[in-house]
């Protein structure tokens, strides 16, 4: 992808970002799904090959999602809405933070050992986030104009194009938002610990299993 000239907008005031109702709804729906997961179990034999493969894949997705969010934050912290970042993870997808969050949601579902939960969480994420992504991109289009159009023409919106990776961060970023993302990524990893604890409680019959899911 050709180099995109970045507008000189660093001195412009950053817009006030508000919490999107759709993102709040996404978290609430995810909590509902997780609450249902507490009362369900997978149909696969515990410790069997299918159980191992699904949960291991879930752990891998959680790790990838957590590290990917930190990686993306290293490029965007302190620049969001002020500079059009188009290198690093932003050279593969226009929304890497959302993409890696998506991987974490799917990984959380698979960590329960149930592909059904992973599918439900994936659908909930996409239904509640794609509209927000579209609205944020409309804002960026209005702010950066032709530079944004060229960027959007060459870089996919959500699912990354791995061979397009290029560039490195300039080394200047704000510590507070970057640190916040690191904290959030740490919480993502706790999801796997939580799912394994739930399985333990099921095995000890502390939490009843009302339904078995594939």
Summarize the structure.
The protein is an all-alpha fold and 214 residues long. The protein is built from 6 helices and 2 strands, in the order αβαααααβ.
Structural class: mainly alpha
Q: What is the rounded Rg?
A: 19 Å
Lateral arrangement of strands in the main beta sheet? 1-2
Q: What fraction of residues sit in β-strands?
A: under 5%
The stretches of 5 or more residues where confidence is low (pLDDT under 50) are 1-17
* SSE arrangement, N to C: HEHHHHHE
Tally of helical segments = 6
Distance between the termini: 42 Å
**How would you sum up the major sheet?**
2 strands, parallel
Number of strands: 2
Average pLDDT works out at: 82
Shape: elongated
The number of domains is 1
The percent range for helix content is: 55-70%
Please characterize this protein's 3D structure.
With 214 residues, the chain is mainly alpha-helical. It is 61% helix and 3% strand. The chain has 6 helices and 2 strands; from the N terminus they run αβαααααβ. α1 (21-38) packs antiparallel against α4 (115-144), α2 (49-76) packs antiparallel against α3 (96-111) and α2 packs antiparallel against α6. It is elongated. The termini are far apart.
């Amino acid at each position: 992808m050709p180099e995109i000239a970045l507008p000189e907008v660093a001195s412009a005031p950053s817009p006030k970002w508000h919490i999107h109702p759709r993102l709040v709804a996404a978290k609430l729906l995810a909590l509902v799904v997780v609450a249902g997961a507490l009362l369900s179990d997978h149909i696969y034999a515990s410790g069997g090959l299918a159980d191992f493969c699904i949960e291991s894949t879930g752990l891998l997705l959680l790790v990838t999602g957590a590290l990917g969010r930190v990686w993306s934050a290293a490029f965007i912290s302190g620049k969001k809405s002020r500079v059009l970042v188009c290198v690093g993870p932003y050279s593969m997808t226009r929304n890497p933070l959302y993409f890696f969050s998506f991987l974490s949601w799917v990984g959380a579902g698979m960590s329960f050992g149930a592909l059904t939960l992973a599918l439900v969480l994936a659908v909930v994420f996409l239904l509640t986030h794609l509209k927000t992504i579209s609205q944020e991109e409309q804002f960026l289009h209005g702010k950066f104009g032709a530079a944004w159009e060229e960027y959007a023409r060459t870089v996919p919106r959500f699912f990354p194009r791995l061979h397009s990776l290029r560039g490195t961060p300039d080394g200047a970023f704000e510590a507070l938002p970057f640190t916040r993302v690191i904290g959030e990524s740490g919480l993502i990893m706790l999801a796997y610990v939580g799912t394994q604890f739930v399985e333990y409680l099921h095995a000890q019959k502390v939490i009843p299993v009302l339904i078995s899911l594939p």
